[in-house]
Amino acid sequence: MFTSANFLVPNATVLVEIGVFAAVLGVVARFVLPRLRAAMDHRQEEIRSAIEATQRARQLLKTAELDYETRLSDARRQASAIIESARRVGAYLQAEARKQAKEEHDRIVARAQWDIDQATAVARDQLQQEPEDWTSTQSH
């Protein structure tokens, strides 16, 4: 009959291949995987540190933004107060200038009226004396 080998029964080649595979697997497990795991753990720790640093930076940024908004709001309030104060001072100075101008105007008008009254009085006196002068001039 058939004298060929049964394919279900392992022969020496298959056993050697299994042995070599096991040896390679053992070398990889013993020398390569620990280094690979260490590198992966190191990289994972770097990533974790970077994430924590990013979270801290975001928190600092949020705090800085809040501080910025607070300071900006304070600066706007101060600017508004300064502007309002300047408007009040301007209105006061304008009113004061108008008051002084009115006083100066009234003083000038009063002085002019006094000058007019004086000139009128002098002219009246001269006119009252002139008829006497006319009568004395006409009789000669």
How helical, in percent, are the residues?
over 70%
SSE order, one letter for each helix or strand: H
Quickly count the helices: 1
Strand content: under 5%
Number of extended strands:
0
Mean pLDDT, nearest integer?
90
Low-confidence stretches: none
Counting helices, strands and paired strands, the structural category is mainly alpha
Distance between the termini: 196 Å
What's the main sheet like?
none
* Overall radius of gyration: 58 Å
Form type: rod-shaped
What does this structure look like?
With 140 residues, the chain is mainly alpha-helical. Helices cover 91% and strands 0% of the residues. The longest helix has 128 residues.
Keywords:
140 residues; mainly alpha; 1 helix
SSE order and pairing:
Layout: H1 12-139
Short description:
The chain is an all-alpha fold. Helices cover 91% and strands 0% of the residues.
